[in-house]
Amino acid sequence: MDNFQIETAQNVTIRQNAASAGVRIGSYLLDLLFMILYYILCIWLLGTLGLDSGFDAWAIYLVISLPVFFYHLLFEVLMNGQSPGKRINRIRVVKLDGSKPTFGNYLLRWVVAVLEINIFSGSLALLAILLNGKGQRLGDVAAGTTVITEKKKLTIHDTLTADLREDYLPTYAQVTMLSDQDIQTIKELYRKAKKTNNHKIILKLHTKIIDITGIKTEEQPIQFVDTVINDYNYYTQQ
Question: pTM value?
Answer without folding.
Answer: 0.59
